[in-house]
Structure formats: C-alpha cells, structure tokens
Amino acid sequence: MTHLLEAKSLDAFYGDFQALFGVEFHVDQGESVALIGANGAGKTTFLKVLTGLLPVPGQSLSLEGVDLTALRIHQIAARGIAMSPEGRRLFPSLSVRENLQIGASVKRPGPWSLETVEKLFPILAEKANTPSTLLSGGQQQMVAIGRALMANPKLLLLDEVSLGLAPVIVRDIYETLPMIREQGTSVILVEQDIGQAVAVSDRLYCLQEGRISLEGKSSELGRDEISAAYFGRA
Ligand code: ATP
Question: CB neighbours (10 Å) of residue 113?
Fold first, then answer.
C-alpha cells in the first residue's frame, strides 16, 4: 500500500553535521501521528525536511508515492503539505481574516475555506477584523492552524501547539482534531507534552539523537517504554 507520506532511510545534514539518521516514518490518510523527542532530538529538522526547507537525498521522502526530494518549497505546498509553525508567526498588523486569507495563496481544491475554518474556530469569525496581535495566545494558535488549513493540505503539520498555552486552551484546540481528520486531512503533531501527544494521536514516533527510538500505536505504548525512548537508557 502506498502511504500518504513516507520517509525511507532518511538522512538529513546541516553541512557536515548529521541531524537525522535513517528515519523510517509514515502517515496514512486521515491519521493523526505524534512526533516527540527531547530538545535537539531532530523534530524541527524533520519538519524542515517535510516542508522542503532542508533538502535531503533523493527518494527518501514521498507524498502519495511521488518523490518530494527534488521539489521546492512552493511545489511541496502545492502538493498538499502545510504547517502551523511553532510560535504561530502571524502577521501582527493584519486582521485575523487577512491572516487566514494568506493561507489560501496556495489554494488547492478541498473542504477548507474561510467559512469552514470559521466554523471550526467560531471565535475567529467574531474577531475577523481584529489585528492578530490583539488576540490571546490560544486564539493566535487557532489562526495559525486555520491559515494552514486554508491551503487545503492533505497533510497538516502542527508544531508545538501547546507551547505557552493553558491546558484548558490546549484541550479546546485539540478537540478540533477529529473534525479536521473527518475532512480527510492527516496530521503530524510535534509535542513537548507527551501525555497530550499520546492522547490525540493514533500512532506515535519518538526521536532520540536523530534516530527513531520508538514507533507504535499510541493506545498500546506504555509510559516506561515512552520514557526510555525519550530520555534514552542509562
Ligand atoms: P527542540 O525541541 O529544541 O526544538 P528539536 O528536536 O526540534 O529540538 P532540532 O532543532 O531538529 O531538534 O535539532 C537537531 C540537531 O540539529 C541538534 O543537534 C541541533 O543542534 C542541530 N541543528 C539544528 N539546526 C541547525 C543548523 N541550522 N545548523 C547546524 N545544526 C543544527
């Protein structure tokens, strides 16, 4: 079976420094897959590879069987990978709605539009004309996710959604994941909060020093197993 996204023996380098080693990773349609790992494990590097910011050797990464490694950033976006970045990176002087509309500059056909994004996060309709800088952290996170959805991605990358947000806000945001997936959009989420990552994913991968140290169904992984993969064995 062809996976939606597949990394095979994927290595990544910054000059002479190797940050990822033989990564095997896949996502199927509609799946929610978590990626965890300690600081410096390689999570951001992997997201950079997926979005085309960091080129990798040929044939090590494909989307629906198509090699992504020769494609440029905008070509990868056009094929259906969009990211809600860590720190949200909104345009502060633009309104909520303008920020969302920027996401539609890579417009693919699909279920997501201003209307459906504002239905997913109703507060964004209420605040449509508010400059994004005046929003709370949680609301800004919703704009960042909404902006990524506006491109109608097949695969949505969520980088550190919970960073700096109160648990109740994080819960509200992750409660929208099933609705996103019902539309056929797959999700990779990078999370610092391991409990959260387990709770909202079908499968989980752990990176340790650039290598996948654990892969499994989130509901079947034990806490000790995850800790060992995350921190490494003494
Ligand atoms: P964090 O949770 O701190 O963001 P991470 O898991 O995302 O960590 P990466 O940022 O992917 O980790 O870093 C993986 C390794 O690559 C680290 O050893 C880091 O020092 C190194 N690295 C990251 N960016 C660069 C770069 N631009 N040049 C050289 N080395 C880099």
Answer: 15
